[in-house]
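stage 2 :: seqdesign
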């Protein structure tokens, strides 16, 4: 059966957990061959095996994508394994701390600059020669926080605003090479990051984050993956330099509008993907994933 990505080769960074798992599985279901990339500690091998077990094409890649040689090796794996590269999904990111800025840990700031910004820079730079050949495209993970700012993790919003501006610049510069570049900007998504039990949010922060979107709930990883799919596919051939908000309306919200939503409308859709790693995300500083940025 013809899928929306049949014949395409994609790299999904941060593909072992959360939204990335859903993107990798959605793309594979639509016929793409997928490189599932993430840290060695992330369940990238599991996701890759789950895809192949259900009839899709995938290979795992493990390493720190914020490092230039590792990013280049990831791109090489895609080309060696599948012969080309059509789609780069820059989804990898971290959310290691919450605190007001006067108390914000400096190492958490550096950790985000390293893992949220350097990884997007090096992966995009390494992928471009191959995307130019295939007339491919890039979709990067922005955020409503990169548009609105976010209290108690102000540097996180800054790293995401970098990605918005970076992708817009890339889209203009690379249009003449036939390469498109866009951002998906999620609001609160049902991954490890937005639960007090699995991430750095306090109970109060979690409550506010879920009450703010007018749709009254978190988005699911699959709902976000659906928008990645559209942007990465040829259906979006006239879309470049765009920020696609997948945020339940939170960037328009001026208060806890979600509290007014009746409970039956707050139920998350079940979806079709089998997601095993949506809460396996990266929500603290791991010593082995820190280190020098250059
Ligand atoms: N969850 C949300 O509410 C939300 C909201 C807005 C934007 N986003 C964005 O979506 C993306 C995914 O978020 P998530 O909630 O699925 O997170 P997650 O922690 O579940 O998954 C992200 C994965 O990326 C990996 N990663 C991070 N840096 C890496 C590096 N240098 N090399 C290799 N792998 C690396 C992590 O280890 C992790 O496995 C992030 O970029 C995030 O900023 C998420």
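stage 2 :: out
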């Amino acid at each position: 059966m013809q899928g929306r990505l049949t014949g395409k080769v994609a790299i999904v960074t941060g593909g072992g957990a959360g939204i990335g798992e859903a993107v990798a599985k959605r793309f594979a279901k639509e016929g793409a061959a997928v490189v599932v990339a993430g840290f060695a500690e992330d369940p990238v091998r599991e996701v890759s095996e789950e895809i192949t077990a259900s009839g899709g094409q995938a290979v795992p890649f493990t390493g720190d994508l914020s490092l230039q040689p590792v990013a280049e090796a990831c791109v090489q794996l895609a080309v060696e394994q599948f012969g080309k590269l059509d789609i780069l999904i820059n989804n990898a990111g971290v959310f290691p701390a919450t605190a007001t800025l006067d108390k914000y840990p400096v190492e958490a700031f550096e950790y985000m600059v390293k893992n949220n910004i350097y990884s997007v820079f090096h992966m995009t730079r390494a992928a471009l020669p191959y995307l130019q050949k295939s007339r491919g495209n890039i979709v990067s993970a922005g955020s409503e926080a990169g548009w609105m700012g976010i209290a108690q993790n102000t540097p996180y919003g800054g790293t995401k605003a970098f990605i918005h501006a970076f992708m817009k610049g890339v889209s203009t510069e690379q249009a003449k090479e036939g390469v498109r570049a866009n951002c998906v900007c999620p609001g609160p998504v049902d991954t490890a990051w937005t639960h007090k039990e699995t991430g750095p949010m306090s109970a109060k922060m979690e409550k506010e984050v879920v009450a703010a979107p007018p749709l009254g709930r978190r988005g699911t990883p699959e709902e976000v993956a659906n928008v990645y799919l559209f942007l990465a596919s040829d259906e979006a051939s006239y879309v470049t330099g765009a920020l696609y908000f997948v945020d339940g309306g939170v960037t328009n919200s001026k208060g806890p509008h979600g509290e007014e939503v009746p409970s039956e409308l707050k139920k998350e859709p079940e979806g079709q993907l089998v997601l095993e790693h949506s809460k396996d995300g990266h929500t603290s500083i791991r010593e082995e994933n820190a280190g020098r940025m250059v």
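stage 3 :: structure notes
- The beta strands are 9-13, 33-38, 57-62, 87-90, 137-141, 180-186, 243-246.
- The chain has one domain: 9-189+222-254.
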